[in-house]
Amino acid sequence: MRMAAPQQVHVRAAPLARALRTRVAAAAASASSPERALLGLSEPDLRQLAVDLGQVLSHASLPYPASSIVCPAPYCCTRFLQQSYRGKQLHDLLYKSRAKQIQEFSHVPKVFREALVGAGWKVGRSPVHHAVTASDGTTKILLKLEDNRLIETVGIPVDDDKGPSRLTACVSSQVGCPLRCSFCATGKGGFARNLHAHEIVEQVLAIEETFQHRVTNVVFMGMGEPMLNLKSVLEAHRCLNKELKIGQRMITISTVGVPNTIKKLASHKLQSTLAVSLHAPNQKLRETIVPSAKSYPLEALMDDCKNYFLETGRRVSFEYTLLAGINDAKDHAEELAELLHTCGGGYHVNLIPYNPIQGSEYKRPYRKVVQAFVDALEARKITVSVRQTRGLDANAACGQLRNEFQKNPLLESSPSSEPNLVPA
């Protein structure tokens, strides 16, 4: 007895789009997938996302079980699989057009945009809650995150006769900081959570939009301890380098010192600068300034720095905040030089005259005291520079501006849709 050939089901192309929208939305809702950020993904990641989404789209468009029929238009199941170039379009929209919402993705089909939203994807950009600009051009921005918390990022321009020649973005890696260094405003504001990689990258984009100028340098010296969020910091570093085309040597990662993390960072063999915040030339004094130093002896920290140089070939920079009458004496400079020489020398010291914050007992040293410290280091063959203080009239010290606006999460009703630009 001859078997009847399977009946082909003929479906017009027009209903496919309607079926697609309803079925994708239902599938996304049932999956209960968390919101995810496109910002920070590489082009290969985005191409793969487009392919994966295409598979969902093609199967969701079928109003019947695929295993029981012969599809009259096979292209409807394969066209999305072949369109990984949608990932290239997403890449351009994120990093060239700088689109902030999926609704702005005008170069991709509406069906594709709806599928992205239905699957829980967002661009990953946050609104500017407040911004203040100092007389020297330094601008501090507060971004309001998805959970209503605020983070700071600072844009520091350096101009020449022809206009802006360098723009540095000082980015945060955490909401607040758990280490509570005694002189730092961020620690006084408490700690909430680590930042995701896209929340770090978006700070650089916010600075570029504010200045209408490309960011040339990035320093992880904002709110938080980068080594306590190393995974996200490294992901953001990759994106800044590969997608935003900021050279690795133009990026600095700062740390006050977290056990076992400098060695881990060295294993990645980045060409970026490691900046270690010392603030004192001996363990006893350092513990009074940096409480977390109790769990990370200075000797062990310096050994890790020496090994970092040996493994990466990159010179370590040491940050040293000068606090009047605390760590700024000539004797402290001589002790610091001896400490560096015992660890192999060849290091660079970046002196930072204290930027006063409200309610702190610390004071900024006089200029002649700073110069005497510099002279003592240079006399002992230590390379030293003094960081130019920027943004004194804009509360630009880490954590200052945020503490004026937030100690707890903002209420949903807090107005923040439009940035509040206030000249200092």
Automatic annotation (TrEMBL):
Q: Could you tell me which SUPFAM superfamilies the record lists for this protein?
A: Radical SAM enzymes (SSF102114)
Task: Spell out the subcellular localization from the entry.
Answer: Cytoplasm
Arranged from A to Z, the UniProt key words for this protein are: 4Fe-4S, Cytoplasm, Disulfide bond, Iron, Iron-sulfur, Metal-binding, Methyltransferase, rRNA processing, S-adenosyl-L-methionine, Transferase
> Cofactors per UniProt?
[4Fe-4S] cluster
Q: Which domain of life is it from?
A: Eukaryota
4Fe-4S: is it a keyword of this entry?
Answer: yes
- What are the Radical SAM core domain coordinates in residue numbering? 163-393
Gene Ontology cellular component terms for the protein in this record: cytoplasm
- Kindly list the GO molecular function terms attached to this UniProt entry: 4 iron, 4 sulfur cluster binding; metal ion binding; RNA methyltransferase activity
PROSITE patterns named in the record: RADICAL_SAM
Q: Which GO terms describe its biological process?
A: rRNA base methylation; tRNA methylation
What Gene3D superfamilies does UniProt report for this protein, alphabetically? Aldolase class I (3.20.20.70)
Annotated HAMAP family: RNA_methyltr_RlmN (MF_01849)
Q: What protein is this chain from?
A: Radical SAM core domain-containing protein
Its source organism is Oryza nivara
User: Lineage in the entry?
Assistant: Eukaryota, Viridiplantae, Streptophyta, Embryophyta, Tracheophyta
